[in-house]
Write a structure and sequence with these properties.
mainly alpha, Glycosyltransferase, two-stranded antiparallel ribbon, two-stranded antiparallel sheet, 8 strands
Length: 376
């Protein structure tokens, strides 16, 4: 089965270019031209990790060529518009740091400076958390923690002043406002104004626990625990991470160890075991054990989840291998899109697709952790 993963990843890379990738199903469906985006960013980051752990330059060479199609010598990023204040657009910037180390080319540092400049001006809630996007005023989504905070931590460590206080404080606010201690899970979104149509008027939280949102948050925390090099900051992040892992683990499906699209409602009509969020949770567990933050039992569960995904959704179709069971997209609002109301019915209505990077990239990231854990 692992040989299938290797062949599958290589095929996707060979079939991709900056103009058209084999893993961005949103772009394919919407007919969008090539642009700087978080979906490609997830995949490129996963490929860099794979290149690092395997020593194969093939993947890193592809990433460098891909990113060079968007970065000018002065650090300008083609198609990127900072005035949208979109946290999603920051995520792809994570690849700039390893590329800068690899090549020494100043354009990568300058591009990172541009993304960091957006975050310095990013609108914030009354409590100081970033708005998810300009079109989502006062809204904090778990997705946005992954999109912005690991980049900020890398920038602070590599190019900044190693100040992680604001990163940690924003995550602590998410814990305070969006965590349900009875369920052990985090809500997808929070509206600090408590006025948007999908928010509970008393708590400001959305209605349900969407798997991939929790996966984004878990992945962000796992990555931050590796990036941040300040003991005091780490001491505040660790308990939030371990609490999250302890909260989500009981929801693993007994047969596959995967997790449901709406996490706490397994078995309800229309709910399904979803690839992307399951891969993210497994990745966070495996990485948490490797970093010494989680006990060994989480590595066993993470590995079971990884293997369960492969058995259920990595399928040979003709001469090719495909990864299925990936929720294409889910969100909350905006006001002119009332269908995205955070209801159970909404989450199970979004398309399920194959080979989208929101599922493929976490599976590759999880695979790198599996490789790391193999005996030498």
């Amino acid at each position: 089965m692992y040989e299938q993963i290797d062949a599958y990843i290589r095929r996707l890379v060979r079939e991709s270019s900056p103009q058209r990738t084999a893993w961005n199903m949103e772009r394919v469906r919407q007919g969008k031209p090539a642009h700087w985006n978080y979906i490609d960013g997830c995949m490129l980051g996963a490929l860099l990790s794979l290149s690092e752990i395997t020593g194969e330059a093939f993947f890193a060479d592809f990433v460098e060529t891909f990113v060079d199609a968007f970065i000018s010598e002065d650090g300008a990023i083609r198609t990127y518009d900072p005035s949208k204040y979109n946290l999603d657009d920051v995520n792809e910037g994570r690849v700039l740091f390893p590329l800068y180390k690899r090549t020494g080319n100043e354009k990568y540092r300058l591009a990172a400076d541009r993304l960091a400049a957006q975050l310095r001006e990013q609108p914030r809630t009354c409590e100081g958390n970033f708005w998810h996007k300009l079109i989502y005023p006062d809204q904090v989504w778990l997705d946005g923690i992954y999109m912005a905070q690991p980049f900020r931590a890398l920038y602070a460590r590599e190019l900044g002043n190693r100040d992680y206080e604001d990163i940690v404080r924003q995550i602590e606010t998410v814990r305070r406002r969006m965590f349900d201690p009875e369920k052990g899970l985090y809500y997808h979104g929070y509206d600090a104004s408590k006025t948007v149509f999908w928010a509970d008027p008393a708590t400001g939280c959305s209605k349900n626990f969407w798997l991939r949102a929790i996966g984004w948050f878990a992945t962000a925390l796992a990555d931050l625990l590796e990036i941040v090099d300040d003991p005091a900051a780490l001491a505040r992040l660790r308990p939030i991470f371990t609490e999250l892992m302890a909260g989500v683990a009981p929801y693993a499906d007994p047969d596959t160890a995967m997790y449901y699209q709406v996490v706490d409602q397994g078995g309800r009509a229309g709910n399904y075991l979803e690839t992307s969020g399951s891969s993210m949770i497994a990745y966070a567990m495996l990485k948490g054990v490797r970093l010494g933050v989680l006990p060994e039992r989480y590595a066993l569960l993470g590995r079971r989840t990884f293997d369960g995904i492969l058995r259920r959704y990595l399928r040979a179709e003709g001469e090719d291998v495909e990864l299925d069971g990936i929720c294409l997209v889910a969100g909350l609002g905006p006001a002119d899109n009332p269908r995205r109301d955070g209801s159970y019915e909404y989450y199970i209505s979004e398309p399920i697709v194959k080979n989208d990077a929101k599922g493929v990239a976490p599976l590759v990231m999880c695979y790198t952790e599996v490789i790391r854990s193999r005996p030498a």
